[in-house]
Amino acid sequence: MSAVHVSRSRLYSRNLFGTQYRSGRFDRLRATCIARHESTVHAPLSSGKKLEFQSGKYARFADGSAVASFGETAVLVTAVSKAKSSPTASFLPLTVDYRQKAAAAGRIPTNFLRRELGTSEREILTSRMIDRSLRPLFPEGYFYETQVVCNLLSVDGVNDPEVLSINAASAALAVSDIPWNGPVAAVRMGLIDNEVVVNPTRREMAKSQLNLVVSATLQNLVVMLEASAENVYQQDFLKAIKMGVKECQIIARTVETLRKEAGKPKREYVTLQSGSEELLSAIKLISENRLRAILRDFSHDKISRDVAISTVRNDVMEKMKAHFPETDTMIISESFNKFFKELFRKLILDEEIRCDGRKLTDIRKISCDVDLYRPLHGSALFQRGQTQVVCTVAFDSPESALKSDPVSILMGGLKAKNFFLHYEFPPYATNETGKVGPGSNAGRRELGHGALAEKGLRPVVPSDYPFTIRLTSEVLESNGSSSMASVCGGSLALMDAGVPISQPAAGVAIGLVSRTNPETQQIEDYRILTDLLGIEDYLGDMDFKLAGTKKGITALQADFKLPGVPLKIIMESVLQASDAKSHILDIMSQTINKPRKDKKDIWPVSEKLQVEAHKRAKFIGLGGANLKKLTAEAGVQITAIDESTYSIFAPNQSAMDEAKEMIEQFMKQEREPELEFGAIYKARIVELKETGVLVTLYPTMVPTLLHNSQLDVRKVAHPSALGLEVGQDISIKYFGRDPVSGRMRLSRKVLQSPASAIVKNLNGTPSSS
């Protein structure tokens, strides 16, 4: 009873202090929680497995909640949307929070506080993927702050919780009263032994050449694509997309069934007031010819075009304020934006000429350069139009590999990455101001673009490369498709650094401008644009990025502003992007077409060193003192590969030479005589111990133990029982060294019977007896 009282008090206090609850909201929530019944539906997938959706049991104060279960993996997703929109909002403020929970995997976080801390890169990328699957299906003009939270209930380490979260989010929004034109469904597609696999397990994904996530609606419309691939052929890639869309229909129908059983009526909402017909006509009359002239002046670049449009906008705003004094300034601004967008798209659809004078399939002028600065291991400059990217390569030891935490590994992540790409987008790249450097904290966009560029290049980088590779891509100018420019520049920089990549890689962005039927919302006419400009991305319907080699596809990311795009457009976009990618690779090959063979003197060096087991202590030193000395003085890093093999990493050849000299000093000693297996030697006792005697066979030898069990055929409790003394010489037989510890294997016991072999004395002094 007290728990209910506390919950109600918290709700009333939130209402009192002006949060999202409108009048009577608590009563509606209470009535909903009491009346809502639990509903469970199952989606029978083509693989024979079942995907289960459940609603009405958990988190009933949320506007919508649902649990999706696949195998033993379960995800709870909640959706809440504010009752009032911000008066200045002009977009949907949607937030998606996906968090990995160690407890869901039966683990405890390994950080100092033993709890989940800041959001990881993997969580951000998954949140973006869910956002991109949901956002296009919100109705136009819905600008209410909305939050979707994904809570992992259990993770079995076999089935994927990320794609499951998309489906659970779709179910949560479907049963809620939040306006949303779903459902949407998602599947992950793999390619194993040239066979397309639907929703592969974690172990199957390790063998898969393809990792493709497809989100689609009930109408066979694609809403989101995200893929990485091991140079997969175009036809296999398209086949996987088609099969993924087909599989999505089963899940989407199941979510629709859940909505009919447990869904709430959608709430009414207020959209931003649109301008009157009189206002729109006045804006068109004043600005159309001027805007058309700007968009057909092909001498404009990004900055001059933006300045010219801004000048027209300011002039229109001043005149409209004078003619329509009672109309809100924001309505005038939005009316101008709406007209400009329509005009921009109409010119492309009707005339098939873009604002910079290119035809639909033309690529901007490209220039490349490599080996920019001598101290860099590898570097490249890639310029495409007004998008300029500088990429640099830095090598380091294998110990510098990017390691994942145990929970991320269990949920399908890599244990360690020996190649990673960091993408930087400073504000000056778009003539803006803002934070730069470590204090700026890379946002979700930067992480997403960097991850995409890394996916595009990872398949061509050798997995057994002896160094860890960090590729940095810094955008110096941006006018569209900087992530794909990072793939091109990164490929050039890797070749300049001598990395033996399998093939050069390149990427390109494809856009879409379409005309839809106002009643059916179906696309009636469209144009696909190659090599997207920033303004075309902003005013268009699609951002479709594809990277790969001449052979196949390595990465793809597609976002849509429309509530889904037909497969026909997807197929055409892949074909058009593949043609553009090949053309870009031809241009890049004129600068550098294969990895550099001649070594730079600043390149790091890696060698392997064999150390016999009995010499390891001398090599490592007391408490690792020798290894620490090598790192401090020569700057090298020593990594143990196995029991007798070590890897030496040096920043350059001179450091390697210095390290070798130091190792020689560590290992330097008088030449040891070669001992013959099975031979009999004279051994001198240097110490008596409870367990045996310590003996030496030659003066410089480290004393070794001859155990009591090997002293005599009789059981010996202490060496003194046999009359043995320090300094006494005894005959022993040599049986080689132990393969693990490297210790000598000696025996006196086997000589208790009459000896027929010659006794060898290596001590160089006459025997005592």
Task: Describe what this molecule looks like in 3D.
This protein is an alpha+beta fold and 769 residues long. Helix content is 32%, strand content 26%. Strands 8-7-9-10-21-20-18-19 form an eight-stranded antiparallel beta sheet, sandwiched between helices. A six-stranded mixed beta sheet has the order 1-2-3-4-6-5. Strands 25, 26, 27, 28, 29 and 30 form a six-stranded mixed beta sheet that branches. A hairpin with a 5-residue loop joins strand 1 (39-44) and strand 2. The protein is elongated and about 120 Å long. The chain starts with a helix and ends in an 8-residue tail after the last strand. Residues 1-35 have low confidence and may be disordered.
Percent strand equals 25-35%
Main β sheet profile: 8 strands, antiparallel
Global morphology = elongated
Taking the alpha carbons of the first and last residues, their distance comes to: 95 Å
Task: Please identify the structural class as seen in this structure.
Answer: alpha+beta
Q: Radius of gyration, Cα only, in angstroms?
A: 35 Å
Q: How much helix, percentage-wise, in residues?
A: 25-40%
Q: Could you report the average pLDDT, rounded to the nearest whole number?
A: 86
Number of strands: 30
Uncertain spans: 1-35
Number of helices: 17
In order across it, which strands form the biggest sheet?
8-7-9-10-21-20-18-19
